[in-house]
Design goal:
- The chain is an alpha/beta fold.
- It has a single domain, classed as Rossmann fold.
- 35% of the residues lie in helices and 28% in strands.
- It contains 5 helices and 6 strands, in the order E-H-E-E-H-E-H-E-H-E-H.
- The protein has a 6-stranded mixed beta sheet, sandwiched between helices.
- Helix 3 runs parallel beside helix 4.
């Protein structure tokens, strides 16, 4: 049985739900108490694959102002990244472009998957599907996931899609 290990980064502004997505994916739980990540928190999840196992080292990086200088070191060596916006705050979508560019500068072959989180908050939602598509077109991407860390909607799908992209190198 083969085991491979891959580092992935979660990138996005403060409060988009990065830590909640990690908790949902790794531990299968949601906690509505907000605790801002300072620096980086690393979690691990083992995915069963046809060839054996893929150990995902999930780096939950603090976002927001000052991100670039503090996080460059943390992003180095990343095979993949989830770039996350909060569907209830439009400015977090525009920030995704900066996060994606930053990690691509450090890791030109990095695989990216874009997420619009908090899809369960339908009344507060301000980011549309067409907004997401327009933002992603800069990177030649058309695939994204609308997720909810609270309900678990599409969270596993997003992480698994990133694992598949890493395996294929596309």
């Amino acid at each position: 049985m083969t085991t491979i290990q891959k580092k992935i980064c979660l990138l996005g502004d403060f409060g988009v739900g990065k830590t909640s997505l990690v908790h949902r994916f790794v531990e299968g739980r949601f906690d509505d108490k907000y605790l801002s990540t300072v620096g980086v928190k690393i979690s691990r999840k083992v995915l069963k694959r046809s060839y054996g196992e893929m150990n995902l080292l999930v780096w939950d990086l603090a976002g927001g102002s000052g991100f670039e200088s503090a996080s460059n070191t943390y992003m180095q060596g990343g095979a993949g990244a989830l770039i996350i916006c909060d569907l209830t705050r439009y400015e977090t979508l525009t920030a995704c472009e900066n996060y994606a560019r930053q990690i691509r500068i450090l890791n030109p072959g990095v695989q990216l998957v874009f997420l619009g989180n908090k899809v369960d908050m339908t009344k507060e939602r301000v980011v549309s599907v067409s907004d997401m598509l327009a933002a992603l077109s800069v990177f030649g991407e058309r695939t994204f996931f609308l997720t909810s860390a609270k309900t678990g909607e599409r969270v596993e799908d997003a992480f698994n899609h990133l694992a598949e992209k890493i395996e294929k190198g596309v």
